[in-house]
Sequence to fold (368 residues):
Amino acid sequence: MRFAFYSAKMMRSMFRVVFVAALAASMSCRAMETLPPSAMEEPHTYRIEVLQVTDIAPYQESLDGFIRSLGDNGIVLGQNLAMNRVSIASDVERGGFWNRLWVYLQVRSEAQRIVRARPDLVLTIGTSATKYARRALDDAQIPVVFTAVANPLEVGATSFRDAGPGVTGATLYTDMADSLKIVKEIFPAVQKIGMVHTDDENGVAHVQVAKMKAAGAGITVSSRQVSKNDGIVPSLKQLLEDGAGVQMFAVPLDTYYGLRNYEPARDLGDFGAEHDIPVISFALVRMPGAMLYVGADFAAVGGLSAMQAVKILKRHMKPDVLPILKLDRPTVLIDPQRVAALKLSLPASVLERKSQARDGFWEIGASK
Fold:
């Protein structure tokens, strides 16, 4: 009897096993497939802190490009992205040591607040915010991505490709040799360019690089430094009367030109027009009077920074392994109204590469 009892019990167990196996076999192959990782992950809202010094239009363009690129990669503001932005006021007109010290202390204070908030990532816009905040954020192991930085070496990067511990991003840097080559193609007779700058970190670096690279294009660059509350006209007169005189004025990446409703830029444009001297800009920021723009697009660079942010947020990569990104070539824009006003004739090799861009400008494609 005991044997029969165990045999019946074993039969019932075997029947259950066979039934489950048959049920599983009857299910579709699709039901048995492994779920994609995105389906198994719990919904997550990414938290990003944005830190910048001064509130200028190019920084907004950088942020717009950053947010747009994040959205293209499934990280959408207001849906699965929460963003807090802090812009530290700076007395850019006064400039000097005390203003830099004030900015340093304010950025450090904000960095400590961010450490306490523990976001998923920090976006720093511009040189000052990146340089002064990175140490505290790296010590707290909070990833930092920068944008709108002209020279990565100025923010503590070990090279133009390696940002150092805890940081990555994208730079406005474009090879000045390429930019000057474009200038020479459009203005083959130009041999001397004048530039006015302040103690703005990007402006100083930009002028220094221009001077170093100019010889390769057969050009000499002369410069004058002014304070941010100085007018630009006296320096323009000095550059015009210096030696044989400059044949062109060039605007560097310097916040000075946007002050007082673009007063320095407007005065430069008027001075150039009165003396039949073309004005060009090595910053892709609308400058009254400029007829040629050669430089990095702030929104596009912001988009490159977002690409690195996506890798950190979604793939959990460390900033240290991600290189600093930059655009392959500078963007080239020409204002046809200024060309007509100056009665300039552009080379056929340039005109055949033009296409219509926004605001009535021509964009010049790469040479073949």
Notes: Residues 77 and 263 are 36 Å apart (CA to CA). The longest helix spans residues 2-26. The chain has two domains: 40-172+298-321, 176-295+335-364. The chain has a mean pLDDT of 87.
